[in-house]
Specification:
This protein has 343 residues and is of the alpha/beta class. Helices cover 40% and strands 19% of the residues. It has twelve helices and 14 strands. The chain has an eight-stranded mixed sheet with strand order 3-4-2-1-5-6-7-12, with helices on both faces. Helix 8 (213-222) crosses helix 10 (276-287). It is globular.
Length: 343
């Protein structure tokens, strides 16, 4: 018999949020998902994810109305809401007695933050303040939230360690994530809220975002279009499979850490970087098609490499990522072909 929890997941229609909702429900917990379903990328994919959870699009489209899953009943409920809505979010906390909160809602994307900076302040700073303030007001004892490997900037000290200086973000997106960590520290110190920040490294897998490399490359190769290879392929990323990320999230939400401090910050990645060109080769091998490569210079805001030291997360939560890039790429391509009916 599990100790059933009621958990708020913001960003529930997103890539990571969807997988987390599905996993928690499978474990028997109650999930209330929140998302504003913005159009940063194709909203049909977001509604398709929600459909997998039993939330119909016509119900999910309506703002500030709670709907239940037609497959799981009250075990999964969803509300479309802007995280920065200071009137509606407290009402949600009044309606449900949350055991813990996981904030995955954010305006993502490094390059887009250069084009549309205000969206990042609205969602990533004002929205984060709103949710952590609700945690304080409604006595939520544990908040797990998404930070990002982008806070490390162009650091040459690899692998990246949580103790490294991260005072030089090279994109506004990274700056907002660093801000979240600082805000969490203040609230942990002042109000004894346990905050657990997770610095995600490049996450990929089934139901992934269309603006990420895995999706872009697969789509272009299958449609005989060239792929953009930045910095002439001399980039490396700590590509991390969604299943490993989900397991880490579940551990930080449901388990007590060996670290008893209120403020915690962890890298969560595969801890084995791979060159971008090798990642492309893995996709080519699975598809049986050679990519047309358009070699391009480094993009503003991008970093040369990411590499996660996950020893602290391993120590405190026994986090052990074990999905190889080959396995992960195969799982994504199989999903992609199924989703777009290409089999």
């Amino acid at each position: 018999m599990i100790n059933k929890k009621t958990i708020l997941i913001s960003g529930a229609a997103g890539f990571i949020g969807y997988h987390l909702c599905e996993a928690l429900v499978r474990l028997g917990h109650n999930v209330i998902g929140l998302d504003n379903i913005n159009d940063y990328y194709n909203v049909n994919l977001k509604y398709s994810r929600l459909e997998q959870l039993g939330i119909k699009q016509e119900k999910a489209e309506v703002f500030n109305v709670i709907s239940e899953s037609y497959t799981h009943g009250f075990q999964i409920q969803f509300i479309r809401m802007n995280l920065e809505d200071r009137d509606e979010l407290p009402k949600l906390f009044e309606t449900f007695d949350f055991d813990m909160v996981c904030n995955l809602a954010a305006q993502p994307g490094v390059r887009y933050s250069i084009e549309n900076p205000k969206a990042y302040v609205d969602s990533n700073i004002n929205g984060f303040l709103n949710i952590i303030e609700c945690c304080r007001k409604y006595n939520i004892k544990r908040l797990v939230y998404a930070s990002s490997s982008s806070v490390y900037g162009n650091s040459n000290e690899v692998p990246f360690k949580e103790i490294s200086n991260v005072d030089k973000p090279i994109s506004l997106y990274a700056a907002t994530k660093k801000s979240n960590e600082l805000m969490a520290y203040s609230y942990s110190h002042l109000y004894k809220i346990e905050t657990i920040g997770l610095r995600f490294f490049t996450v990929y897998g089934p139901w992934g975002r269309p603006d990420m490399a895995m999706f872009l490359f697969t789509d272009a190769i299958l449609n005989n279009k060239p792929i953009n290879v930045f910095n002439n392929g001399r980039l490396s990323r700590d590509f991390t499979y969604i299943g490993d990320i989900t397991e880490g999230l579940i551990s930080t939400l449901l388990l007590d850490s060996k670290d008893s401090s209120f403020y915690k910050l962890y890298n969560i990645g595969y801890s084995s970087p791979i060159k971008l060109i090798d990642f492309i080769i893995a996709i080519e091998d699975k598809l049986g098609i050679k990519a047309k490569k358009k070699m391009l210079p480094m993009q503003p805001g991008d970093v040369n490499q990411t590499w996660a030291d996950v020893s602290h997360l391993q120590r405190d939560y026994d986090y052990r990522p074990n999905t190889s890039v080959k396995e992960g790429v195969e799982a994504f391509v199989d999903w992609y072909k199924s989703y777009y009916d290409l089999n």
